[in-house]
Amino acid sequence: MSLPYPLSMEVSCPLNDVPALTLSSSAHAVNADLLAGPVEVVVEWSEDGQSWVEGPDARFLRIKRRGDGTDRAGLERYELPGYV
User: Fold this and answer.
1) Long-range contacts of 15-19 (CB under 8 A, 24+ apart)
2) How far apart are CA 73 and CA 22, in angstroms?
3) Mind listing the pLDDT tens digit for each residue in 33-71?
């Protein structure tokens, strides 16, 4: 399953250090429930929109979530450390 339309994301893969992913999404987005609990997130990309590849250090664990329960847009921010 995939989370097709995050509002924003930042991926960092520093040399000889732990990668990290910061992700923002709406609680109302398609498949947003996939991020409800601790999960593994894989970042893939495509140059032609048809074949997708996972790069090195592209796996992350969804551990930390922040959001405001009164926000009607349901904005949630996630901080995911990478692992190898």
Assistant:
1) 18/81, 18/82, 18/83, 19/57, 19/58, 19/60, 19/81, 19/82
2) 19
3) 888 888 999 999 899 989 999 988 899 999 888 888 788
